[in-house]
Specification:
single chain, 441 residues, alpha/beta, five-stranded parallel β-sheet, 16 helices, 10 strands, globular, binds 5-phosphoarabinonic acid
Length: 441
């Protein structure tokens, strides 16, 4: 078997005693049983647990085919969705595609420019995006499990109108792909009526656990990401994270420790990365844990930081502010050697950095990571670490499954339903009331 992602808590060991962790072991085992048997709260939404082995292979083949066609024909591909309907694919594309993937550079492979829409209601963003695609061949994937979510529905209205005006109804329908519920919702009805090709969000998988379903896979395919490798990574992670015991299962070890720290007053978890390409993975992680655990007056607050950038803004707080934090570092062990930068020697040495000449940026980044972990641990912030061997599709699949599994068990340990999100409704109801009022007066 290939090298696997790994978890270590060496820099956190001074913050708990072994028997505290051991006391959690039976609770973790119970949470594992509930998750696997689907008997815990929200058990009807645990289809993702076995998904890497149970996905529909016919639909999967269709995703690959449609992805290749869009790659070939599109100049611009718009992914419309919010929350779990876009964060996972965005995370994959940013982690796995070249940094400036929408520009043609020597690192870029043949792929359309990819933009996201429907994840906010900014008029400014939308008008600029519509302008940007003016003279380009546009294809759209609109994604909404419920099919009724306001932000993507609004954005889709605009793109549907644009495509129909530009290409006519018949051609527009060949350029629109809908990912939604198999039976119900406004998007499903619209897709059926208009004859869009559709992909299914499985009934038993909620939005934030859906990145490995058509929700995430079609945009990834368009970006040229190797889907077989993503799913192989997830399938291997099923085994890696399949045992009920914390010491045999790194995702449960992580889940147990974060709950232990929470019980000791560490109410905020910082997900720290040292590669800007992991920022969207952190956004996906924030939704996964924030929406799964933040309920009934409970839950760790998931925050993220990109180092070393944020060491110059929030580093002061982490080092010296209120001690209610712990950090989890996402570390990529083998840097991308094709894109390695070496510090040059400069004769005048005015900046005094010649002592680093010949050293790679990756090596310096590694030292920044080690230095920050040591400093923050000394400052009272326990540090956990998840090591990702390389930034490849295989390890993207692994890390997604690792976090999903940790999140499901973590929510059960906390005593909440990790698969609902009733709190999201409150703002929507107010907004709808206010909008109706606007139209009345
Ligand atoms: O995890 C969830 O279910 C939610 O956060 C959804 O992903 C988000 O609200 C988008 O919903 P939908 O896909 O129904 O448009």
């Amino acid at each position: 078997m290939k090298k696997q992602i790994s978890f270590d808590c060496i820099q956190a060991e001074d913050f708990f005693v072994q028997h505290e962790l051991e006391k959690m072991a039976p609770k973790v085992r119970r949470a594992h049983e509930m998750l696997h048997a689907g008997t815990g709260p929200g058990g009807e939404y645990t289809g993702w647990v076995n998904w890497p082995e149970t996905y529909d292979s016919e639909e999967y083949a269709r995703i690959k085919h449609v992805g290749a066609v869009i790659r070939e024909k599109a100049e611009v591909f718009i992914v419309i969705g919010v929350g779990g309907s876009y964060l996972g694919s965005r995370a994959a594309i940013e982690m796995l595609c070249p940094a400036f993937h929408n520009k043609k550079t020597k690192f870029q492979h043949k792929a359309p420019e990819i933009y996201f829409a429907g994840h906010h209601i900014s008029s400014s963003y939308m008008s600029q995006l519509l302008h940007l695609v003016k003279d380009k061949e546009v294809y759209v994937n609109v994604i909404s499990k419920s099919g009724t979510t306001f932000e993507p529905a609004l954005a889709f209205r605009l793109f549907r109108q644009l495509l129909e005006k530009r290409y006519g109804k018949e051609e527009a329908r060949k350029r629109i792909f809908a990912t939604t519920d198999k039976k119900q919702g406004a998007l499903k009805e619209l897709a059926d009526q208009e004859g869009y090709e559709t992909f299914i969000v499985p009934d038993n998988i909620g939005g934030r656990y859906s990145v490995l379903t058509p929700v995430g896979l079609l945009p990834m395919a368009v970006a040229g990401i190797d889907l077989d490798a993503v799913l192989a990574g997830a399938a291997d992670a099923m085994e890696l994270c399949g045992k009920p015991d914390i010491y045999d299962n790194p995702s449960y070890y992580y889940a147990a420790l974060r709950n232990l720290f929470y019980s000791k007053g560490k109410a905020i978890e910082l997900l720290v990365s040292y590669e800007p390409s992991l920022s969207s993975l952190a956004e996906w992680w924030k939704q996964l844990f924030g929406e799964s655990e933040g309920k009934d007056g409970k839950g760790l607050f998931p925050a993220s930081m990109s180092f070393s950038t944020d060491l110059h803004s929030l580093g002061q707080y982490v080092q010296d502010g209120r001690r209610h934090l712990f950090a989890t570092t996402l570390w990529i062990e083998t840097p991308n050697t094709q894109a390695e930068v070496i510090v040059p020697e400069i004769e005048d040495n005015l900046d005094g950095l010649n002592y680093l000449a010949g050293t790679s940026f990756s090596e310096i980044n590694r030292k920044a990571c080690e230095g920050a972990i040591l400093a923050h641990t000394k400052g009272g912030v326990p540090n956990l670490r998840i090591n990702i061997p390389e930034a490849t599709p295989y390890y993207f699949g692994q890390v997604v499954y690792f976090f999903e599994k940790a999140c499901g068990v973590s929510g059960h340990l906390l005593g909440v339903n990790p698969f609902d999100q009733t709190g999201v409704e409150a703002y929507k109801q107010n907004m709808m009331r206010l909008l109706n009022r606007l139209s009345i007066f």
